[in-house]
Automatic annotation (TrEMBL):
InterPro entries: Glyco_trans_2-like (IPR001173), Nucleotide-diphossugar_trans (IPR029044). Transmembrane segments: none annotated. One of its GO terms (molecular function) is hexosyltransferase activity. It comes from Chryseobacterium arachidis. Pfam families: Glycos_transf_2. Keywords: Transferase. This is Glycosyltransferase involved in cell wall bisynthesis.
Length: 252
């Protein structure tokens, strides 16, 4: 029997895209999964769309109040029963072989965490607008401080080996903080050099003022890692250089 995979998804006003996401999960060649969707009080008909799918593996939880993506992910993590944790936001997509390939790769490499390539796509057409992000290096706590190579859509970890890791609800860079906390506990994560996912590049998520993004990243080091001001500024500068070079076509 294949190990259970718990898929963690926050949803909020995702009616425009959620059906594509659902179809990408239902099309997985690996069938032993549970999908824990925590809806963050959507104001559109996201919940109604999800409820149309009569599959017992899809477990929808509508939260009592809006608390942000990190909190919604945590609510799903609390209920997760699977050995493997995978993350899929409500507007992103997986290729049909995503879960099969990722779990096989973890077993083959005796890995605690793995990540793969993913396409960076236009939010409406889902056509690539940048070169695929490449999983081209082993990730460690040290190198993840300078640039966050791990994205929820393309990363999986093994709870039997490392336990569960939750997201800080007071950070706007909650993904990076969670990955750093995880990599404090394990020596490395392994790259799977194959494109298995599509990340939808939403205009409203990349148009935030640069100074606000940099401030949020600085707080990752200062508040959550407990670094000194000088050390926090050093890593923020490294992150900014790497990030803006990577996404220069968007921010120009």
């Amino acid at each position: 029997m294949k190990e259970l995979v718990s898929i963690i998804t926050p949803s909020y006003n995702s009616a425009e895209f959620i059906e594509e996401t659902i179809q990408s999960v239902l099309s997985q060649t690996y069938e032993n999964w549970e999908w824990l969707i925590s809806d963050d009080r959507s104001k559109d008909n996201t919940v109604e769309i999800i409820k149309k799918y009569n599959d017992p593996r899809i477990k929808l939880h509508v939260l009592e109040q809006n608390g942000g993506a990190g909190n919604a992910r945590n609510k799903s993590l609390e209920r997760a029963q699977g050995r493997y944790i995978a993350f899929l936001d409500s507007d992103d997509l997986w290729y049909p072989e995503y879960l099969e390939t990722m779990t096989d790769f973890m077993k083959k490499n005796n890995a605690e965490l793995v990540y793969c390539n993913y396409s960076r796509c236009d939010e409406h057409t889902m056509e690539p607008i940048l070169k695929d992000f490449e999983a081209d290096t082993i990730v460690t706590f040290s190198n993840l401080l300078k640039t966050c190579r791990l994205a929820p859509v393309s990363t999986m970890y093994d709870t039997k080996r490392v336990g569960k890791f939750f997201f800080p609800v007071k950070s706007k860079r909650e993904d990076h903080v969670m990955w750093l906390n995880l990599l404090k506990e394990i020596p490395k994560g392994y790259p799977l050099k194959k494109t298995l996912a599509k990340y939808r590049m939403r205009q409203n998520s990349v148009s935030r003022k640069k100074k606000n993004i940099i401030k949020d990243q600085y707080l990752v080091y200062k508040d959550f890692m407990g670094f000194s001001t000088l050390k926090s500024l050093y890593y923020t500068a490294n992150w900014a250089l790497n990030g803006f070079l990577k996404y220069s076509k968007i921010f120009n």
